[in-house]
Amino acid sequence: MARKHHELTHKRRERLADFVVPFRVKPGARVTLSKDFDPAFDGGLRHKREGEALLAEGVELLAEYQARLAAQDTWGVLVVLQALDAAGKDGTIRHVMSGVNPQGVAVHSFKVPSAEELDHDYLWRYARRLPARGGIAIFNRSHYEEVLVVRVHPENLERQKLPKASRQRGVWKRRYREINDWERYLSDNGIRIVKLFLNLSKEEQRRRFLRRIDLPDHNWKFSSADVAERKHWDDYQKAFSEALSHTSTEWAPWYVIPADRKWYARIAAAAVLVNTLMEIDPRFPTVDKQRREELLKVKATLEAQAPAGAAADPFAQDSGRDDSDGRAQRRDSEQPAPVSAKSAVD
Ligand code: AMP
Ligand code: MG
Predict the structure, then answer these.
(1) Protein residue whose Cα sits closest to atom 1 of ligand 1
(2) For a substitution probing ligand 1, which of 145, 146, 179, 220 has the most ligand atoms within 8 Å of its CB?
């Protein structure tokens, strides 16, 4: 049984690793978004229905790995989500994280910086929201705005109260380096970083803006500022291309997620996240022999307290099945099944 599970996990892992390859920006590669990545790519999955089963599988795996990540308490995961307006950041978070224990996830949105934030170094506000070990944090926009919107609208840089030398030529190259260094420091210290860029086409953005106007329930989502921002489309494409070229690293690679089909973007984002968690391969901690003996003593005490007519251990039968499919959470795990009290005594 364990062997079969092992093979299944291995196959699944390989399939996922293959699936995410086309999205990954090779470290050091020079990216031109319009040439290198197609927002309408669907990997041959023609229909939403085909995708639904895949997404459900991804969501289930995520929940399982999140539980292990939390139990192991060694790694934290930082998900960086970047995109232009209407690319589907919010919907992606909603769908991809739908099966995950809310206690294990925090979502942080970064808007125009406050006066307090502008009074600090530019990475300060992001550093304050990093995940703890065992946790997943999602940055809905992130430190990358510091080389995107700030680059496209340099007046943002003016507001950052930087010393003169830090505002002059070379500021963007320096920021790429600083971001890479920061991310390397984080990954060296147990924070895995997953960077997703939702890649939307200009025409699909136009359609989605129109839809936000046409549907009354969606009006609140429409901001005239977004249409103003659309005028800077080419500048943004350039800024994204540059950022992807300079900040996709071995320790924190970028993934460009085709975003013209919402359902496909969600599958792809879930796949990248699950793939990263599989690479981390967090394990439920196992207890040592001494601790297990202690547990068995406690167990004997609890069994002795059974009222008349009640089974000493109502789960005695189940525990023998622990290494089968008895618990969904352990279905895909390669680690040995926890030793039940019964088999430990044997
Ligand atoms: P939304 O995510 O649609 O609520 O919009 C948030 C707005 O905050 C966007 O227009 C971003 O461009 C802007 N924003 C986020 N980070 C920064 C930053 N560091 N400097 C300036 N504007 C930012
Ligand atoms: Mg907006």
Answers:
(1) 111
(2) 145
